[in-house]
Amino acid sequence: MRLVLASTSPYRRDLLQRLRLPFEVARPDVDESPRAAESPAALAQRLARAKAAAVSAGDAWTIGSDQVAELDGRALGKPGGRDAARAQLAAMSGTEVRFLTALALRHGDGRCLEAMDVTVVRFRTLTGDEIARYVDAEQPFDCAGSFKAEGLGIALFQAIASEDPTALVGLPLIATARLLREAGFTVP
Questions:
Q1: How far is the C-alpha of 106 from the C-alpha of 139, rounded, in Å?
Q2: Are 4 and 23 contacting, i.e. CB atoms less than 8 angstroms apart?
Q3: What are phi and psi for residue 59, nearest 5 degrees?
Protein backbone atom coordinates (compact mmCIF):
# COMPACT_ATOMS: atom_id res chain seq x y z
CA MET A 1 0.00 0.00 0.00
CA ARG A 2 1.18 3.50 -0.81
CA LEU A 3 1.43 6.12 1.92
CA VAL A 4 1.66 9.85 1.32
CA LEU A 5 2.39 12.58 3.86
CA ALA A 6 0.49 15.72 2.86
CA SER A 7 2.99 18.10 4.38
CA THR A 8 6.28 19.78 3.64
CA SER A 9 7.01 20.12 7.36
CA PRO A 10 10.42 18.67 8.16
CA TYR A 11 9.17 18.00 11.71
CA ARG A 12 6.29 15.79 10.51
CA ARG A 13 8.50 14.04 7.97
CA ASP A 14 11.10 13.22 10.64
CA LEU A 15 8.42 11.92 13.00
CA LEU A 16 6.74 9.72 10.37
CA GLN A 17 10.12 8.17 9.51
CA ARG A 18 10.17 6.69 13.02
CA LEU A 19 7.42 4.25 11.99
CA ARG A 20 9.74 2.81 9.32
CA LEU A 21 7.14 2.71 6.59
CA PRO A 22 7.98 3.91 3.09
CA PHE A 23 6.13 7.09 2.24
CA GLU A 24 6.07 9.91 -0.26
CA VAL A 25 5.73 13.60 0.52
CA ALA A 26 3.34 15.93 -1.29
CA ARG A 27 2.68 19.61 -0.76
CA PRO A 28 -1.00 20.29 -0.01
CA ASP A 29 -2.29 23.56 -1.39
CA VAL A 30 -4.65 24.54 1.45
CA ASP A 31 -5.69 27.95 2.71
CA GLU A 32 -5.04 27.79 6.47
CA SER A 33 -7.08 30.88 7.34
CA PRO A 34 -9.56 30.34 10.17
CA ARG A 35 -13.24 30.76 9.41
CA ALA A 36 -15.46 33.17 11.31
CA ALA A 37 -16.39 31.76 14.75
CA GLU A 38 -14.45 28.54 14.08
CA SER A 39 -13.14 26.95 17.28
CA PRO A 40 -9.44 26.05 17.45
CA ALA A 41 -10.32 22.32 17.53
CA ALA A 42 -12.61 22.63 14.50
CA LEU A 43 -9.90 24.58 12.66
CA ALA A 44 -7.24 21.94 13.34
CA GLN A 45 -9.51 19.08 12.25
CA ARG A 46 -10.74 20.90 9.13
CA LEU A 47 -7.18 21.67 8.05
CA ALA A 48 -6.00 18.08 8.65
CA ARG A 49 -8.90 16.79 6.50
CA ALA A 50 -8.30 19.41 3.82
CA LYS A 51 -4.57 18.66 3.60
CA ALA A 52 -5.22 14.93 3.23
CA ALA A 53 -7.95 15.54 0.65
CA ALA A 54 -5.79 17.98 -1.34
CA VAL A 55 -3.31 15.27 -2.35
CA SER A 56 -5.39 12.10 -1.90
CA ALA A 57 -5.65 10.03 -5.07
CA GLY A 58 -5.78 6.51 -6.39
CA ASP A 59 -5.06 3.64 -4.06
CA ALA A 60 -2.84 5.64 -1.67
CA TRP A 61 -3.53 6.50 1.94
CA THR A 62 -2.71 10.13 2.69
CA ILE A 63 -1.85 11.62 6.09
CA GLY A 64 -2.97 15.17 6.76
CA SER A 65 -2.18 16.84 10.07
CA ASP A 66 -2.46 20.29 11.56
CA GLN A 67 -1.71 21.81 14.94
CA VAL A 68 -3.41 24.81 16.47
CA ALA A 69 -2.37 26.47 19.71
CA GLU A 70 -5.33 27.63 21.81
CA LEU A 71 -4.93 30.43 24.33
CA ASP A 72 -8.03 31.63 26.18
CA GLY A 73 -10.30 30.05 23.56
CA ARG A 74 -8.64 31.65 20.55
CA ALA A 75 -6.32 30.12 17.99
CA LEU A 76 -2.72 31.25 17.74
CA GLY A 77 -1.20 30.82 14.30
CA LYS A 78 2.41 30.39 13.28
CA PRO A 79 4.17 33.64 14.10
CA GLY A 80 5.98 34.07 10.80
CA GLY A 81 8.52 36.49 12.26
CA ARG A 82 10.51 37.64 15.28
CA ASP A 83 8.13 40.27 16.66
CA ALA A 84 5.07 38.03 16.40
CA ALA A 85 6.96 35.13 18.05
CA ARG A 86 8.00 37.36 20.94
CA ALA A 87 4.42 38.63 21.34
CA GLN A 88 3.01 35.07 21.36
CA LEU A 89 5.49 33.90 23.99
CA ALA A 90 4.80 36.97 26.13
CA ALA A 91 1.06 36.24 25.93
CA MET A 92 1.63 32.60 26.93
CA SER A 93 4.02 33.41 29.79
CA GLY A 94 2.71 32.02 33.08
CA THR A 95 -0.37 30.42 31.46
CA GLU A 96 -1.62 27.06 30.23
CA VAL A 97 -1.98 26.64 26.49
CA ARG A 98 -3.73 23.78 24.70
CA PHE A 99 -2.12 22.38 21.57
CA LEU A 100 -4.64 20.60 19.37
CA THR A 101 -3.01 18.26 16.88
CA ALA A 102 -5.50 16.85 14.38
CA LEU A 103 -4.85 13.87 12.15
CA ALA A 104 -6.70 12.61 9.06
CA LEU A 105 -5.77 9.43 7.19
CA ARG A 106 -7.64 9.47 3.89
CA HIS A 107 -7.79 6.89 1.12
CA GLY A 108 -8.17 7.87 -2.52
CA ASP A 109 -11.66 6.32 -2.49
CA GLY A 110 -12.81 8.82 0.17
CA ARG A 111 -12.57 6.70 3.34
CA CYS A 112 -11.17 8.79 6.18
CA LEU A 113 -9.95 7.89 9.67
CA GLU A 114 -9.40 10.71 12.17
CA ALA A 115 -7.88 11.46 15.55
CA MET A 116 -7.15 14.48 17.73
CA ASP A 117 -4.49 14.86 20.42
CA VAL A 118 -4.74 17.55 23.08
CA THR A 119 -1.53 18.52 24.84
CA VAL A 120 -1.54 21.10 27.63
CA VAL A 121 1.63 23.12 28.13
CA ARG A 122 2.11 25.19 31.27
CA PHE A 123 4.59 27.96 30.52
CA ARG A 124 6.92 29.36 33.14
CA THR A 125 6.67 33.08 33.79
CA LEU A 126 9.09 34.38 31.19
CA THR A 127 11.01 37.64 31.20
CA GLY A 128 11.35 39.76 28.10
CA ASP A 129 15.07 38.93 27.97
CA GLU A 130 14.40 35.17 28.18
CA ILE A 131 11.89 35.43 25.36
CA ALA A 132 14.26 37.46 23.19
CA ARG A 133 17.18 35.08 23.79
CA TYR A 134 15.02 32.09 22.98
CA VAL A 135 13.53 33.56 19.80
CA ASP A 136 16.97 34.65 18.58
CA ALA A 137 18.45 31.21 19.34
CA GLU A 138 15.84 28.99 17.65
CA GLN A 139 13.87 31.32 15.36
CA PRO A 140 10.64 29.29 15.75
CA PHE A 141 8.76 31.31 13.15
CA ASP A 142 7.15 28.28 11.45
CA CYS A 143 5.93 26.65 14.67
CA ALA A 144 2.50 26.92 16.29
CA GLY A 145 3.11 28.59 19.65
CA SER A 146 6.52 30.03 18.69
CA PHE A 147 8.67 27.27 20.17
CA LYS A 148 10.35 23.99 19.34
CA ALA A 149 9.63 21.49 22.11
CA GLU A 150 12.21 19.10 20.66
CA GLY A 151 14.87 21.78 21.12
CA LEU A 152 15.58 24.66 23.49
CA GLY A 153 11.86 25.46 23.71
CA ILE A 154 11.51 22.83 26.43
CA ALA A 155 13.25 25.30 28.79
CA LEU A 156 10.23 27.62 28.52
CA PHE A 157 7.87 25.15 30.19
CA GLN A 158 6.89 24.36 33.72
CA ALA A 159 5.01 21.19 32.71
CA ILE A 160 3.51 19.27 29.80
CA ALA A 161 0.44 17.03 30.03
CA SER A 162 -0.02 14.73 27.06
CA GLU A 163 -0.88 11.19 26.08
CA ASP A 164 1.57 11.40 23.16
CA PRO A 165 4.81 13.37 23.45
CA THR A 166 5.26 13.43 19.66
CA ALA A 167 2.04 15.39 19.16
CA LEU A 168 3.60 18.61 20.40
CA VAL A 169 6.27 18.32 17.71
CA GLY A 170 3.56 18.07 15.04
CA LEU A 171 2.39 14.51 14.40
CA PRO A 172 0.86 12.29 17.11
CA LEU A 173 2.60 9.00 16.34
CA ILE A 174 0.55 6.89 18.74
CA ALA A 175 -2.65 7.90 16.93
CA THR A 176 -0.92 7.74 13.54
CA ALA A 177 0.22 4.16 14.18
CA ARG A 178 -3.28 3.20 15.37
CA LEU A 179 -4.96 4.67 12.28
CA LEU A 180 -2.40 3.08 9.96
CA ARG A 181 -3.08 -0.33 11.55
CA GLU A 182 -6.83 0.25 11.10
CA ALA A 183 -6.14 0.99 7.42
CA GLY A 184 -4.23 -2.29 7.03
CA PHE A 185 -0.61 -1.22 7.40
CA THR A 186 1.74 -3.35 9.51
CA VAL A 187 3.12 -1.19 12.31
CA PRO A 188 5.62 -2.34 13.48
A1: 33
A2: yes
A3: -95, 10
Q: What is the mean pLDDT of residues 168-185?
A: 96
Is 66 an active-site residue? yes
Strand partners, 62: 4, 106
Residue in 66, 129, 136, 164 annotated catalytic: 66
Q: Peptide bond before 188: cis, by omega within 30 degrees of 0?
A: yes
Tens digit of each residue's pLDDT (9 = 90 or more) over 33-78: 999 999 999 999 999 999 999 999 999 999 999 999 999 999 988 8
Query: In sequence order, what DSSP letters do the residues of 82-135 get, joined into one string?
Result: HHHHHHHHHHHTTSEEEEEEEEEEEETTS-EEEEEEEEEEEEPP--HHHHHHHH
Cα separation, 114 vs 176, whole angstroms: 9
